[in-house]
Design brief:
Layout lengths: L5 H6 L2 E3 L9 E2 L5 E6 L2 E10 L2 E4 L10 E4 L12 E10 L13 E5 L24 E6 L15 E8 L1 H7 L8 E5 L15 E4 L2 E10 L9 E5 L4 H10 L1
Antiparallel strand pairs: 1-13, 2-10, 3-4, 3-6, 4-5, 5-8, 6-7, 7-8, 9-10, 9-12, 10-11, 11-14, 12-13, 13-14
């Protein structure tokens, strides 16, 4: 599930994952999962973290307002539980580096808050940093095949394991900072992919990371996906939401 051009993905070793997922995964229903649109065009995934705030990736930014959909699992069909909101303000992390993807996070504030119910609920921000070996969940509407692209109608989820920073740096020499965390599965092809960018890495019921980038071909057991290490940005997130 990567959100960017297939041609570009074939040319570069690493690519932004603007779609989520799961080369291996199952259909799921998550009340915090957001879908971001420019008009009617799907852009990225995101995570509801408060009744009027969504966290996503900075590389998902587009000029103008962003439409956010919550409360449904399908990509296109609407249902009785669906809620649409329009962004009123967009806050990219000030030190975001578009080249290295360091600081790849962004906050969206809604014009009107969502109604919290069984279908739409925020996911708490992580209170600590990820632990290597911890099993977490990723989710999104990204491609379920790679390098060819196949976008599912339903939201998909899968389990991945947090990889140590040392191992991650060996896999991607010169590309990993302490603001990033790797997660994948050495035993299967569970991974985020084209179209999954901005979606959640959820560990122990908390938002631990944001889908950011990875190798050009998804689902390589030896090359885990790379996520924003959200614990490094908790203060900025909380301060930005409080002040605005």
């Amino acid at each position: 599930m990567k959100l960017l051009l297939l041609v570009l993905l074939a040319l570069v070793a690493a690519a932004s994952r603007n779609v989520l997922w799961v080369i291996e995964g199952t259909s799921c229903d998550l009340p915090w999962q957001a879908a971001l649109f420019r008009g009617h065009k799907f852009i990225c995934g995101g995570t509801l973290v408060a009744k009027n705030w969504v966290v996503t990736a900075a590389h998902c930014y587009v000029p103008g307002s962003i439409n956010v959909r919550l409360g449904v699992r399908t990509r296109k069909d609407s249902g009785g539980a669906e809620q649409w909101r329009r962004s009123a303000k967009v806050f990219k992390f000030p030190a975001y580096n578009e080249t290295t993807k360091d600081g790849d996070l962004m906050l969206l504030k809604f014009l009107l808050p969502v109604s919290i119910n069984n279908h739409v609920q925020p996911l708490p921000l992580a209170t600590g940093c990820p632990v290597p070996g911890r099993t977490c969940q990723i989710s999104g509407w990204g491609s379920t095949t790679s390098p060819e692209v196949t976008f599912p109608e339903d939201l998909h989820c899968t389990k991945v394991t947090v990889v140590s920073e040392e191992r991650c740096r060996r896999i991607y020499p010169g590309s990993i900072t302490s603001n990033m965390v790797c997660a994948g599965e050495s035993r299967n092809r569970a991974d985020s992919c084209q179209g999954d960018s901005g979606g959640p890495l959820m560990c122990d019921g908390q938002l631990q990371g944001i889908v950011s980038w990875g190798p050009g071909v998804c689902g390589d057991p030896e090359k885990p996906g790379v996520y924003v290490n959200l614990c490094k940005y908790t203060r900025w997130l909380e301060d930005t939401m409080r002040r605005n």
